[in-house]
Write a structure and sequence with these properties.
The radius of gyration is 15 Å and the shape is globular. It has a six-stranded antiparallel sheet. 40% of the residues lie in helices and 32% in strands. 33% of the residues are buried. It has 156 residues and is α+β, with helices and mostly antiparallel strands. The chain is built from four helices and six strands; from the N terminus they run ααββαββαββ. Helix 3 crosses helix 4. The chain has one domain: Thiol Ester Dehydrase, Chain A.
């Protein structure tokens, strides 16, 4: 069952990158793993994601944090068979060192997103929740930390 859900979310991410949010497709962001509490996505360091210093461009890193932080909203919407409206309200980034390799973005705040979705379902209001995403290089050293505020509203 988990494998089917992962495939479905990966397919939806691909379609979003193709038709709705082209920057996802352009950067080649990939969903590596998702569970109730954790999501991991990766972006390869390549011509499209590099800056003039041969490290990952800020915009590409923002895409990775966006997907790692937001994919749980779609995960829980699929699990609960609900439609949601989802956006980021704010973002704070701390860059710890240059990302000179492929990067993995990890969010361990899936339970916070789940609670926001459940709260939105119960009171039919938009719910805001702060979550954290950490980006790691290929040596598993943290290169950036993102604090993001998600905004979720259940539509049905």
């Amino acid at each position: 069952m988990e494998n089917k859900l992962l495939k479905k979310i990966k397919w939806n991410l691909f379609l979003m990158g193709k038709f709705k949010i082209p920057l996802l497709g352009y950067t080649g962001v990939k969903l590596d793993y998702i569970s109730d509490s954790e999501a991991r996505v990766s972006i390869k360091l390549k011509r499209r994601t590099k800056n003039h210093l041969n490290s990952m461009y800020f915009g590409a890193m923002a895409v990775g944090a966006d997907v790692a932080g937001g994919i749980h909203a779609f995960y829980y919407a699929l699990n609960m068979n609900k439609k949601i409206s989802f956006a980021f309200k704010s973002m704070n980034a701390q860059f710890l060192k240059r990302a000179e390799s492929d990067c993995v973005f990890i969010s361990k705040d899936g339970e916070k997103v789940k609670n926001a979705v459940l709260q939105s379902i119960s009171n039919n209001e938009r719910i805001n929740q702060k979550i954290k995403v950490v980006a790691f290089n290929s040596l598993h050293e943290p290169v950036a930390e993102f604090e993001m505020e998600i905004s979720v509203k259940c539509l049905n």
